[in-house]
Amino acid sequence: MWGAGLFKANTCDFCDDVVAKLADISLGDAWLESYSKDGRGTSVVVTKSPLAEKIIQDGIKSAAISIEPISPDSMRASQQGSYNHRHQGLHVRLKEAKKSGIPIDEIRYGKTAVPLDVALVQKLRRSSRKKSLDVWPRTQSAELFDQKIQSILSLLKLATKVTHIKRMGHMRIIERLCACIMRRK
Length: 185
Fold this sequence. Notes:
This protein folds into 2 domains: 2-15 and 83-184, no CATH class; 25-78, no CATH class. The chain has 8 helices and 2 strands, in the order βαβααααααα. The longest helix is centred in the last third of the chain and has 26 residues, at 142-167. Strands 1-2 form a two-stranded antiparallel ribbon. The two termini are 20 Å apart. The chain is mainly α and 185 residues long.
């Protein structure tokens, strides 16, 4: 589950930049159904300088890379999960940092409160990140590591599914499930 945040640096939880705004070139997984199910590891590419564009065009001409243009809307859709995490979920992480006394520079996003289901996913991601960093040095194998973090990942997977279902419009059922999960925790 890519969204578990395993082994992620704490700093990454406070970055609101989805497409590396200061980079000459930005690459990201193409989270579009037509690409994500093919298993080839297709990426989206955004060039932001003449040099980066020249490198990509040279790669196309030499057949070293294959590029298929997509619309700006498709590009945004391909990174929607990252936008949701970095912009919407940032509110929860900033609140947690402030409560813990962790100083954070001013950030453009994360100022709007989020629904309970989104907050729960963010808290579980932070917990899974922390647990992965705590457990890994004390385990002898990947299998043992997987066993030790399975419970937090199962909760995160359930909470994430709840959020996805809610986004599809099943609000009342989701609110009840979130309340049950919060009581369980």
